[in-house]
Amino acid sequence: MSYSITEPSSRQKWFAGILVIGYALLTLLPLAWIIATGFKTPTDAIAYPPKVVFSPSLEGYVNLFTSRSRVTPEDLAALGPPTTWYDAIVRQYDMVINGPSRYGERFMNSVIIGFGSTFLSVFLGTIAAYAFSRFKVPLKDDLLFFILSTRMMPPIAVAIPIFLMYRQLGLSDTHLGMILLYTAVNLSLSVWLLKGFIDEIPIEYEEAALIDGYTRFQAFYKVVLPQAATGIASTAIFCLIFSWNEYAFAVLLTSGTAQTAPPFIPTIIGSGGKDWPAVAAGATLFLLPIMIFTILLRKHLLRGITFGAVRK
Amino acid sequence: MAQIVIKNLRKEFGAFTAVQSSSFTIESGEFFMLLGPSGCGKTTTLRMIAGLELPTAGEIYINGIEVSQKPASKRDIAFVFQMFALYPHMNVRKNISYPLVSQGMPRDQVRAKVEEVAEILGITGLLDKPVGGLSGGDRQRVALGRAVVRDPACFLMDEPLGALDAEFREHMAQELRALHDRMHATTVYVTHDQLEAMQMGDKIVVMNHGVVEQFGRPQDIYDWPATTFVAKFIGSPAMNLLPFDGMVGNGATSVTLAGTEVHIPRMISGDDGGLVLGVRPEHVHLDDDAGYRGRIMAVEYLGTTQIVTLDTALGQVKVRVGSDKVATVGDTVGLRFDARSISLFAANGHALISTANQKVLNHG
């Protein structure tokens, strides 16, 4: 096969640019829709044809974070004028705020379970991948295949056994139970991804460190870990995205104390009319942590820091 | 400064034996070359001295202390890798400081020491640069700096010039040798390049298939190879090896090659059957009166000398003659061998002892 490398012509660049921008718009459209709906009033949210231009309202966010109840106009009048801006919004609908909703708690559950299981998957994955990459492990190939094989069946296939097991062990609806579950699902991905990254790090670095007077563990965390940062970051993002978005197990195994945001958000619909702006607001806020996490780690995702340090 | 003694060192990787019972002594302050083709066990030997591999059997003494089972960090050695192995996430200064930091040296002392070493290596201006952007030669200097900074008992180098461009290699070789002469530290250097080994080494060990073929000074190894392998491996072009059937006895001073009598050094040992006569290209002269004859096949011009390849009754012979000599392809000429510098090898490839090579071969 022969090919030559030439600078693309300006027409080719234009075409490529339009293609990329077009695709980006297409994928961003649902996201824009959700974010916009979060700032609409319930009436605007279900208007037909859909409103592209609308006057923004924080109603969705107020509804998301509060639980409210309907009162008679007389009672409402007896309360006197609203004291806060969100009181004012709620009272337009003859309602008063009873207290905060459970969204905050559920969101925190998601943070604890999502980041907890991500940390655990990446931590255990790194150690296991290092061992598989560097040491003579008996039955190494079989073990690696076994680890990979846990990924071959959809996790939900074992939902009922896990449900029964968790009930017996008292892990149902606990943070620990969910962290362990997501870690177990993510670990195979994490071991395989990280093994690939660690295999790429020349063993000479560790040998140099061993000769320079460091122990193997010191060589691991002072030399190998910084080199593997790129791999660890991308693995962490994959793990976080899975455990953050996971819905089926969350519905099945959590209902109260450990319920994460994904099963909670749909329940907003049921409580008093189809409150699409509140749902959209919940989804918007739920998007943010992954977005921030990815943006923070983008440097590691884009380029490997080991580039050019070893002549190959 | 350290003397390194290797005794019956052996290393097996599963069913494969990388090093079979090597023994040699590296004297304190020597620049010592481990030479051989790839896969001969030279790097494995070096890594065992370093503590990066544990020997299957045998002993390694550094300054009289048996270290073969000790971790690398407890051997007081420095290792220079072929691929440099500079820590890519640290700048030059941190790379060089790293071995000192691990010893817990106070920070100002580390700083002074690193600057002193950088001065010696001429890399003071690079100290605060990241290693990623350095040229091959500068990376090699930084790698050397990291080795030198600790004042180790010995330096172990695994083809440190292997990753450099040809033109730069020569220059670095001189720099390395100068550095060695300045530090007087024992250096063990692995290479597959026989020229590099002869140019830089005080002593050379030639290895093949995990076996030490010969051990000695470059001149001795060049002049009096212990085996046909060494004869072929050292020298460019290699020693001419002419196989012939015959018999030499103790005290013999000549052999018969294709009907022509050729003088050889007085033999102390003897053998008969398939023998091999070895002679360096520069010890063969073109002489029309000589009895052993050959036809000129090719002439390579090398500046001051030229290499003439002849087809003879016992095989090809390469001759190094001055460029002023006229050699025409197709001509038939006589070959006269310099009797003082001929080696004879038995059928098993080992040199037969003569009065000429006895001193070299008996001590090695």
Task: Show the helix and strand layout.
The complex is a heterodimer of chains A (about 300) and B (about 375).
Chain A: H1 10-38, H2 42-45, H3 59-65, E1 66-70, H4 73-78, H5 85-91, E2 95-100, H6 103-134, H7 140-149, H8 159-169, H9 175-200, H10 204-211, H11 216-245, H12 248-253, H13 261-264, H14 267-270, H15 276-296, H16 298-302
Antiparallel strand pairs in A: 1-2
Helix pairs in contact in A: 1-15, 3-15, 6-9, 6-11, 7-9, 9-11, 10-11
Chain B: E1 4-13, E2 16-26, E3 31-35, H1 42-50, E4 57-62, E5 65-66, E6 77-80, H2 92-102, H3 107-121, H4 136-148, E7 154-158, H5 166-183, E8 186-191, H6 194-200, E9 203-208, E10 211-216, H7 218-223, H8 228-233, E11 240-248, E12 254-257, E13 260-263, E14 271-279, E15 284-286, E16 292-301, E17 305-312, E18 315-322, E19 332-337, E20 343-345, H9 358-363
Parallel strand pairs in B: 3-8, 3-9, 6-7, 7-8
Antiparallel strand pairs in B: 1-2, 1-4, 4-5, 9-10, 11-14, 12-13, 14-20, 15-19, 16-17, 16-19, 17-18
Helix pairs in contact in B: 2-3, 2-4, 3-4
Structural class of chain B: alpha+beta
Lateral strand order in the biggest sheet of chain A: 1-2
Radius of gyration of chain A: 26 Å
- How can the largest sheet of chain A be summarized? 2 strands, antiparallel
Specify the helix fraction band of chain A: 55-70%
Give the end-to-end Cα distance of chain B, rounded to a whole number of Å: 23 Å
Q: Let me know the CATH homologous superfamily of the largest domain in chain A.
A: MetI-like
User: If helices are DSSP runs of H or I spanning 4 or more residues, what is the number of helices of chain B?
Assistant: 9
As laid out across the biggest beta sheet of chain B, the strand order is 6-7-8-3-9-10
The largest sheet of chain B is: 6 strands, mixed
Q: Determine and state the CATH class of the largest domain in chain B.
A: Alpha Beta
Overall tally of domains of chain B: 2
Q: Give me the oligomer status.
A: heterodimer
Strand content of chain B is: 25-35%
Strand content of chain A: under 5%
SSE string of chain A, helices as H and strands as E: HHHEHHEHHHHHHHHHHH
